[in-house]
Amino acid sequence: VSWVGARVPRTEDDRLLRGRGRFADDLTAPGQLWARVVRSPVAHGRLRSVDVAAAARSPGVTTVLTAACLPAGLAIPVRLELQGIDLSGYLQPVLATGVVRYVGEPVAVVVAADPYAAEDAAELVDLDIDELPATLDAGQASAAGAPALFAEGNVAADFTIGYGDTGAAFAAAAHVSEIQIQIGRHTGVPLEPRALLAVPRPADRELEPDGGLDIYGMTKVPVFNRDVLARMLGVPAERIRAHAVDAGGGFGVRGEFYPEDFLIPWLAVTLRRPVKWAEDRAEHLMAANHSRQQSLVLSAAFDAGGRILALRADVLHDNGAYCRTHGITVPELTLAMLPGPYRVPAYAGRIRVVLTNKTPCGTYRAPGRFEGTTAREQLLDVAADQLGIDRVELRRRNLLGRSELPHRRALSTLGTDMVLDAGDYQDLLAAAMAQADRLGYARQARLRPGPDRSRGVGVAMFLEKSGLGPQETADIELDETGAIRVLAGGTSLGQGIQTVLAQIAADALAVSPQAVTVVCGDTARQPLGTGSWASRSTVVCGSAVHIAAEALRARITQVASTMLEASEDDLVLEHGTVSVRGDPESRITLGAAAAAAGPPGLRARGRFDVSHMTYPYGAHVAMVEVDHGTGQVRVLRYLVAYEVGRAVNPALVEDQLRGGVAQGIGGALLEELRYDEAGQPQATTFIEYRMPTAAEVPPVDVLVCEQAPAPGNPLGVRGAGEGGVSAVGAAIACAVRDALGLAGGVGALPLTPVRVRGLAESAIGEESR
Amino acid sequence: VKDVRQVTVTVNGQVHELAVETRRTLADMLRHDLGYTGTHLGCEHGVCGACTVLLDGLPVRSCLVFGVQADGRAVATVEGLADGTDPDAQLSDLQCAFSDHHGLQCGFCTPGFLMLAEGYLSGGRPADAGEVTEAEIRELVAANLCRCTGYQGIVEAVLATARSRLGPAGREQGTAR
Asked: Rounded distance, CA A688 to CA A127, Å?
């Protein structure tokens, strides 16, 4: 029996369905206080004073923290330093000092006996701010004479990547196409707001003479965050323990190190009391990372046969007010992944990372790929129409062929050389189109839905990346009761990682996945874990668990061999027992093997080191109906075809893809974090920030392919977290363009009714010319 | 000065008496005063529905109801959905359907969807509504927000439960648990 590949029910479900999840705000410590963050109400200004006298007198208030109480110079560090670019001049202080740079920037923290009292008192903190002109547009912010956010200027980074001679290619081209597109500012918005509980541990005479600190609510990269916190607090890292908690969705946003991740523990340590903080939704929408906002100009040179000779990109990236933990991750991925699955002989990409008086940005599921894929696939449709070549055929001609893989692209991304591993992109595209045909997409698209309405189909190919190293570590334990426990470095964000890792361990040990307990994200139990992000956990964490479980299996066999007086080669592991082949009476349980080994039983560690990422790929097909009068776009059908290498749990791969599509529809049609001219955020509730409901998301057709196992890991897996969202902006933009019969691109996402009406009118204008 | 009232409220059949500030929401009272942390808060302004509970049998957003408004009334939360008080009690048909149809990932919004659907299927649905349709259930599910699943599994889970409970004609045939 192989559990890898089976649709095993999720081990996470039972607890969650009974209301027995353990989310950070569900936990309470004796003597706990509540924190409320006071935030800047203006987008840009000189912070003259913070008067906390009235707040401190408010009933129930313990203390009010301002920057003056803290050591100087505490700032949020960059987690991923890339391309050798120094961002130290643009980091966010944990509390604003001297200047505030966006609405929502933390300025003070009120601590009180209950959350209502804390919120009352927070309103009494008196901020004296001289307002400065706000800079809200990346184009204007990067121009000469713009109000400067920083002494160093507003352009935090300006870099190029590429290879080959694009100048010669464009000069020799038979045809050149160019488009511009703006991607709207939106973000992950997990349903659970951020929350933290920090609990000081009393001193222990020998182990912790100065006490320790327990943290609940660090998700995604708890070991990294623990280390950052330890450095900022000036204590050894092992004195801080981040405990595993449930997380109500991650999507790149949750679990990065934010100012609150320092402030709440600092308060707990200083006050020697447990301190809890749970943000409200308005805070989340103006304080947690935003993402996606870019303006891209893309041009491609083609030969007469429609083959790409070169690609050029010029991108303006609006990063908001600071560079946070992600540094230039999103801009770098935008450029590095732009050529996608295509044969691009020469490429030149430039990006400017511009700071504006808006919420700082970080990654959101498929960072850089959602943006770049939208631009590239629009460009290909525009070029196909100009060249008079079928849109799918143009893609087919330009996709790298099976024999061209592995393909070394002369780029690096996330510190790794880019080697597109095994695959068959053309086959995947053909499979997607055949499936869409079988499901009646083309036939339904041809139906006339009525006056003033039209339907369109959009096809988009995408390249993903996953499995970033450099390492992941897992430990596995077998005790004398036969209990098997995996201590993993990945974290549970709702994706089902515990089920997946249990399946992998179960295969190696010939037990059922229900017999395996998986602990994720506890920094004391797995201090070498590197977290769950970038679709990496099934690949790197799964491989580490596989290696650990195989090592444990070897130890079990060794011990059993002595106990059963049989050669290791003659032993059979099945159903939690070891027996001698041909002599089923001669058997021991796994627990007995562990008992024979003595306390603490049998243990093994698995470490998976990897220097290259793996590159999954796929195609999206969208069919939409556009109401030309109202500008409303309805997504009628949606197909994702995705090459996952090997699906550990196909049902969970489908879940990831479907969920990704829903978020992509949000970014393509609905969600936008807009600001007014003074820099006030216009989307601070779920009325203004429109996330898709069941009424906007159609059933999603999914084709999971396992034709191209990844060569770079023992399981052959490619990761599945982001392929559902990568190409949604592209496929829907292409479908709307098709429905309206546009000659150029759609210009901007999200395709709100106002924008679509404008496009519909421009299309009529083009026709009448 | 805090305005505090004495409240008697029945939660999942158990009677609680407590003093609660008049401005305290039902959600905060359930979560932080009574320990029913299965009810979650996703927006605190009545849009996401993660905090949905049943008040005298009908779904409400517990972030938009004050705790004192539950005085003398019965509240049902996700913790009471499985049969009996045994911690290992069998999950309800609706809970099982959510797992079978992959109607949850992170599980944060799940209690709200469960209570919304339970309230609808066990009393909220008009008796003359006829055959249960996918469109009807999709409209119901559109009342709440989920950020993980894309809703397909939630719609399928509620639809399957509705069909098994109500039968093809859409009339209650006794809960088949």
From this structure: 27
